[in-house]
């Protein structure tokens, strides 16, 4: 391969004469000559007694150097021979000895001592010599070939390739760069890159000064130009000596995408307007997720929606309790039925009664002269959603209890009862039984509300839904903030899946909104995540413990829920129902202890495998029955069992 530097063996010459030092003393050296037949001057080398090498020079253009190592000067030698030796000025030049195994980089500095080097083998035998002119010619030829190959390759790539040296001057500029940036090669090569582009927009300068490498990063070298860039520093002997960048013009694509985002935003606004006129037929459209635990919740909602019973929704803050309440309302009420929500923790105690029950005209000073309808009256024929029911003032709880019992109430300042013709759905993130023991919540109201209990799982127990939720929120906020999101790195999802999400879906939504706002170049970076998320550690034991608590609570509610009881008795029989209730209230599943040697996913897989084995045993080994009980297909069950090694 001629573009590579040659080896010493390839450059070795063997047309030489070698004599010992004794030949000099005895004047036996031949007269240097030029073989006119082959036009090659054969050098004469002398080996001293110590093994050193000397070149016998007899060229008219060489200076008369001093003798070395006591060797006599040939020009000063006295001879009575009729043909004196030699007739031209002559001298001896020390020649370095090199090994055939040496690298060319080690050999080149030795030419500062002599233009000829003698090569010896492993047995210290002189096998040839190399000259500085041969080295220079071979290096120059290899350089020309490499330059030709490189230039042809770079011009063939088609991207805009540029190279800046360590002085930040443009050293290379392809025709692709000329086409994209409209700057001729002859105008920019050798000039500082900052003379043509704003320094703060030059990724090549950042790479040169920081050593940062980027791949397919979106940037703007000019205000009117968008490009995808790959950039890497050029290093030599551990030092950055330049930076190379390859850029692809995506200005047209970005503008088209911005127009598409603008049109998508208009379409979204139109869809919202249409949705207000024609409500969504699917009540579960806004509930995102396909995990088994979410599918179980949706199945429970379908059962609940067949009755007008009061529902108590329990779940941590941020789990989306109002979405589930709205789904229940949409399933069991007509399209025109109102859905009235009131946050019991957001209204002062002094105003809560008038907000809930309304008031008659003249009920108190400052009141509307015409009176005001309360939330219960506004919800007539529909649903009243009491969010954060645990925050309701204790003295008003008895009045709400009367509404639930008698389905009637008195407005503030009123003397005639009004009928409460609405369904009640309450929600809380608090432990109501514990509040009852502290005399903070009425026990009788709790039992009136807790006709049917729906537990919304926290996000940490349904992490398989994080991907779908993330994509939904990204689409929403990219349209809202006019951001083009092109790349979502896998390490970002790694952080999302490892986090415990104490704020649940609301916290995830806020994080995705933050990421969308901070992303300006189309690529979401993990460093955009909040510190609280990247530095948090996964608390593995807490999740199973919370799951046990939820199972116990859910098991007790299922056992006392007449609607669910009837359904289970019809499908599985009373014995199966009793077994489910006992198992839920006293689960025998043991959860893995946290181990420093196993990952979070390994521990969760071990737990899931044990849980599946337990339920498979309860189903008598019948996988079809188990799949039906879990609400999944047999193929999904088989795949999951194979993944878990069951």
TrEMBL record:
Ranges of residues in domain PAS: 146-218
Q: Which parts of the sequence belong to the Sigma-54 factor interaction domain?
A: 287-517
- The source's domain of life comes to Bacteria
Its keywords, alphabetically, are: ATP-binding, DNA-binding, Nucleotide-binding, Transcription, Transcription regulation
- Known InterPro entries for this protein? AAA+_ATPase (IPR003593), AAA_lid_NorR (IPR058031), Homeodomain-like_sf (IPR009057), HTH_Fis (IPR002197), P-loop_NTPase (IPR027417), PAS (IPR000014), PAS-like_dom_sf (IPR035965), Sigma_54_int (IPR002078)
What's the protein called, per UniProt? Sigma 54-interacting transcriptional regulator
Originating organism: Paenibacillus cucumis (ex Kampfer et al. 2016)
Q: Which residues form the signal peptide?
A: none
Query: PROSITE patterns given for it?
Result: PAS (PS50112), SIGMA54_INTERACT_1 (PS00675), SIGMA54_INTERACT_2 (PS00676), SIGMA54_INTERACT_3 (PS00688), SIGMA54_INTERACT_4 (PS50045)
